[in-house]
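User: I'll paste a sequence; please echo it back and then give the predicted structure.

Assistant: Echoing your sequence first, then the prediction.
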Amino acid sequence: MKNEWNEYIAILNREVVPALGCTEPITVSLAAARAAEELGKKPERILVQVSGNLLKNGMGVGVPGTGMAGLGIAAAVGALGGKSSLALEVLRDITENAVEEGKRMLASGDVLVELADTSELLFAQVSVFNGDHVATCTIQRQHTLVTEVTKDSEIVFTYAFEDEESKADSWPLTMAKIYDFAMNVPFDKITFILEAVRLNEAIAIQGLEHEFGLKVGRSMDQDIALGLRSDDITSFATRLAAAASDARMDGIMQPVMSNSGSGNQGITATIPVLAFARRLNKSEEEMARALIMSHLTAIHLKHHLGRLSALCGAILAATGSGCGIVMLLGGDYDGIERTIKNMVGSVSGMICDGAKTSCALKVASCVEAAISSALLAVKGVCVPGSDGIVDDDIEICIHNLGRLGTVGMVETDKVILDIMVRK
């Protein structure tokens, strides 16, 4: 096996992991759990300080096992019943007693959430207090990256960041390399990706069978029964993905397989590929290779955008699934490039205005756009490089999308947050 393929597998194992609940409030729960473990006593008060982007993504999304939304309850149950060793599944074992006690802390005003003075887009610092004792945990840049832990002002743990410039220069992925890997890596080396199918299909079924969130996926099922929609492969993929997002954003106590720190991105990179593989009667190996294409593409695009931005991450994950669908349809590498260009030329401006139940609508829109982009691509149809932010060079095209979502939408991000906090 090629040496660089081991690195790609390591990237997948790092970025495609189970997550219980929306990863922004879960980051706060994780920081709270780690701080409480260091404190060694039951917290009497909790102070949560977060970046604007994390606040935006934690205001309106359900916290698993609580029936509530927001960073306050996420911090409370994390501190009272979370296990930091479980990472993004930190709330997996919370008890009803911990939830009820967390709700009482919140109602008593013992949990304070405020904006941190930080330039980091992803930043959460949780301090827990008992009498004269205080412990603090800081997470930044990645949803599980603990960068400092203190107790009574003494540093217990600190993380040394790598040189960011040299790290960026060493990024190993390109679309051509991803395609080569997905096509040629031995099947037994990538069977682990099928766990994403098991987890994300299970939550999609829950979303179809029960009334979660806006019921986007479930509603599409009902529309099919009424003859308002057809039960074609596009509808199948879209309603499954939307239903999974419905359940997840409503706080279902069930994990999904995430991608790049986002459960919705994991859902969107997995479910459409699963749907096409099932309806086209593809083998497990063919589905696994398409999933590898999808997830690595999403990771590659996300690398250029950053963990949190004003650009909706479902665009990136859906672009990945579109590339996986091209593989299942028998398309070649040129079809992969055309799919990406078609997506960049269509839905690249969708904003992220926080994690919430309406994310299921965005997932549905992005999945439908990805399927249209893929179907056009296999016919040889492509948005030309002369149009808008699209470029003939696929890596420049991806860079342009990343630049739009970072440099280009800085002010957009500020306006979105200002609108949300003024409600």
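The mean pLDDT is 95. DSSP finds 17 helices and ten strands in the chain.
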